[in-house]
Amino acid sequence: MKAIILRVAAASGVRDHGQVRYYASAGPGGFALSREECVRSVFYVVVVRKKRRAGAGEKPKRLRVVTTPIPMKPGVFATTKTTNYLPNALVVADAIDKRADVGLWVTENGFVGEGPSMNVAFLVPADDAGGGGGGDEEDETVCGEAFKTNKKWKLVSPPTSNILAGCTVARVAELVNDAKVLEHLNVAAFEFRDVGVEEGKRARETMLIGSVIHVAPVVEWDGEAVGDETTTETPIADALHAAVVRDIATNVPELTPVPYELYE
């Protein structure tokens, strides 16, 4: 399967700003519910040329989000990667209707879930155990690309027990916790825990994380500004986006050569 993926990627000729999507199917049949009528299993590979994304030295697009009324996928359907993207499509459609970019799911217990094909993370004080206030306000001013004070921060993201465990957010957690890519901005850790909606809206920064967007800051949620209303700067999200872009380009052990020479 890996060889098929690589050959299709090579045949596409796409070298930058592309995405490989692959799907396993029970195969062709009569569109009935049972797989018994399917002739044979099929493996599909598609290479898509994407729009250019922000580079390591550029700021990613700022996003507006809304809390979506679309129900979350239940149980195993939420934690399994399938081709059932109807709820995701409805979330995006609802957000566009409300003049936003994307919607966020909320669990039946009132905790933040995820976005469609993306996870969400929040910047909170390092000593915040969750469910409390938004921290002291007096020293949270942002200036340029660094915080003025030595106050410690951390990133928190909803646990993957009821949502899809995204590959990108898992790598982001490694970059923050192990590679210390945000240490210069006083961000000490990345944690997975429940985050209430109101706690999320009080966060210093909010960001969406996924394979398509990398890291994108959220500047508006349900029509209200996110974070410090006195500035549009999002230094943590911007720095984390740059770290992910660099990691994709330079993390040699994780890179796989594509045999473009086969089709040149």
In a nutshell, what does this entry contain?
The chain has 264 residues and is an alpha/beta fold. The chain contains 6 helices and 12 strands.
List keywords for this structure.
single chain; 264 residues; alpha/beta; eight-stranded mixed beta sheet; two-stranded antiparallel sheet; 6 helices; 23% strand; globular
Written account of the structure:
It is a single chain. The chain is an alpha/beta fold and 264 residues long. The protein has helices at 2-12, 75-79, 86-97, 167-177, 197-202, 235-250; strands at residues 18-25, 42-49, 63-67, 102-104, 119-125, 142-143, 146-147, 153-157, 187-192, 205-210, 214-221, 224-225. The strands form three sheets. Strands 3, 4, 5, 8, 9, 10, 11 and 12 form an eight-stranded mixed sheet that branches. The longest helix is centred in the last third of the chain and has 16 residues, at 235-250.
User: Tally the helices: what do you get?
Assistant: 6
Basic shape: globular
Decide which structural class fits the backbone.
alpha/beta
Report Rg: 20 Å
Largest sheet composition: 8 strands, mixed
Number of strands: 12
Q: Termini, distance in Å? A: 22 Å
Q: Can you give the mean pLDDT?
A: 88
Assembly of the depicted chains: single chain
Strand content: 15-25%
- What string gives the helices and strands in order? HEEEHHEEEEEHEHEEEH
Question: What are the low-pLDDT stretches, counting only 5+ consecutive residues below 50?
Answer: 132-146
Which range best describes the helical content: under 10%, 10-25%, 25-40%, 40-55%, 55-70% or over 70%? 10-25%
